[in-house]
Write a sequence for this structure.
């Protein structure tokens, strides 16, 4: 007798924090798109300490739909750790990660699946900014990728987003990583496998406010750079060597002034020089401190997140 093979499955992981206003339309769009695919599917919402009723709404939807699941964290562990919480708990043939603010269009999911069916292990997306996105946002995003690519050992296309599909074998490899500071865009690019990027135009946030302030963007950039490169340490060393050698230029002048009795004036310039080199030294110490801090946090071996409740089996 022929043996029935189980239908392949796809899980969609969606980290959410205060996205109550976006969830109804998001779930509706996902249902419309996924029901047309020849796969069983599930939606896994990772609730990252919301205060606007997001968790309560997901609980209600989970009671009504057997393919809706949630993982609620004890506090806000951040977007990257929330994605890891989902990846650690799903075992589908393919996993899709996307945000819950409607800026990652569900209509792109069939194209992600088609590329996966064509044999790609990882299908990532490259964002083309919507015309209503501010010039400031576009410029800072471009600078972010330029800095990452110039100072790290990986090459990430500008606009690469955390909207991607991963095959189950790549998810299995990812679960084995124990890095404290997660930078998924770089880490997944570094993993290798067969990857392809597809472009999309980002949508407009339907409700709520962006979670990425300028401060968080800068921290995210530093996290990415220091996770994949030691180039900043080399730059610090080269700067120190350059200014040390440059200081020898003053030696002939000092000898001349001492020999011929010229008074050495310039108190203002002296203070400015001291302040400049003092700031440079603090910057270099800060770079070294970031790396030492990463070692310190890694040595603690704390979990990336703590689950408060979940309805996943």
């Amino acid at each position: 007798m022929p043996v029935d093979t189980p239908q392949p499955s796809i899980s969609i992981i969606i980290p959410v924090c205060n996205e109550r206003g976006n969830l109804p339309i998001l779930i509706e769009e996902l249902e419309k798109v996924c029901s047309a695919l020849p796969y069983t599917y599930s939606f896994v919402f990772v609730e990252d300490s919301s205060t606007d009723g997001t968790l309560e709404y997901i609980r209600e939807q989970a009671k009504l739909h057997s393919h809706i699941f949630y993982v609620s964290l004890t506090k806000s562990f951040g977007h990257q750790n929330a994605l890891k919480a989902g990846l650690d708990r799903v075992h589908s043939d393919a996993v899709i990660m996307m945000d819950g603010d409607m800026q990652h269009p569900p209509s792109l999911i069939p194209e992600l699946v088609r590329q996966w069916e064509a044999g790609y292990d990882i299908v990532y997306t490259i964002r083309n900014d919507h015309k209503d996105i501010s010039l400031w946002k576009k410029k800072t995003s471009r600078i972010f990728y330029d800095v990452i690519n110039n100072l790290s050992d990986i090459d990430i296309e500008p606009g690469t987003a955390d909207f991607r599909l991963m095959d189950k074998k790549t998810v299995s490899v990812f679960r084995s990583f124990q890095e404290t500071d997660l930078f998924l865009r770089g880490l997944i690019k570094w993993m290798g496998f067969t990857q392809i990027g597809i472009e999309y135009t980002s949508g407009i946030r339907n409700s709520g406010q962006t979670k990425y302030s300028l401060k968080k963007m800068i921290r995210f950039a530093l996290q990415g750079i220091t996770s994949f490169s030691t180039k900043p340490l080399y730059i610090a060393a080269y700067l120190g060597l350059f200014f040390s050698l440059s200081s020898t230029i003053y030696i002939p002048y000092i000898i001349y002034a001492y020999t011929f009795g010229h008074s050495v004036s310039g108190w203002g310039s002296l203070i400015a020089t001291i302040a400049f080199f003092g700031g440079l030294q603090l910057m270099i110490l800060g770079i070294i401190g970031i790396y030492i801090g990463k070692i310190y946090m890694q040595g603690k071996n704390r979990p990336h997140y703590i689950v408060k409740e979940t309805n996943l089996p």
Notes: The mean pLDDT is 79. The chain has two domains: 9-226+303-310, 231-300. The longest strand covers residues 9-16.
